[in-house]
Amino acid sequence: MSSLRYDVLGFGNAIVDVIARADDAFLAKQQMRKGGMSLIDEARAQAIYDAMGPAVEISGGSAANTIVGVAGFGAKAGFVGKVKNDTLGNTFAHDIRAAGVAFDTPPAADGPSTARCYIMVTPDGERTMNTYLGAAQDLNPADIDDAQIAASRIVYLEGYLWDPKNAKEAFVKAAGIAHSAGRQVALTLSDSFCVDRYRDEFLDLMRKGTVDLVFANEAELHSLYPTSDFSVSSPAARRAAWWPRRMA
Length: 248
Description:
The protein is α/β, with parallel strands linked by helices. The protein has one domain: UDP-N-acetylmuramoyl-L-alanine:D-glutamate ligase. It contains 9 helices and 11 strands. Strands 6-5-1-9-10-11 form a 6-stranded parallel β-sheet. A 5-stranded mixed β-sheet has the order 3-8-7-2-4. Helix 4 links the parallel strand 5 (77-80) and strand 6. Helix 7 (192-207) crosses helix 8. The longest helix has 16 residues, at 165-180.
């Protein structure tokens, strides 16, 4: 087994969050599903930006935020995600490195711009996300550094990364390399709507042992194992409901 370079190496969408306050009327007018995450194209992204109020830009993304947290606790952390060589891409790279996270994924020279997520925060504290994946969806198997993965104690994979085909292939390749090196692979389910889209595929990843650890909240587990009551659900669903509490 190779020597450790990272305690946790995260794979996810490299996104710059654009956060603004909004009320329910704005969500309704923009046909946004409150509390959820919707994937949008570049034209829709521009339309939302034009309609929203004053905003704050913060580098983010589900896995990236988690990895920054890992680094904040003093662990050795790295992140793999695709940005474009543009203003937002440079912002993302600067911010995550400044947080103590290694980020070496080469930026794209052309193609879609860096991903961004327009986050509407309503007075009740709920957040509604509209994500333009842009360059993030171009993460592909060629971006995988075998040695980097083999030297990471845990490879942490973001459920949102399961949307783009190329990123999905990179996801599976990374898991295979990690297991060959005797490392562990963790998956966060990310969002109940994400689980709705890929329930069978996520379950298959678990059954085949592609992932060793699963992080999920109650809503995501209800989506993974459709049931309103875990106490009368299948043994597999009850085990899944137990995992997040055990690892918390």
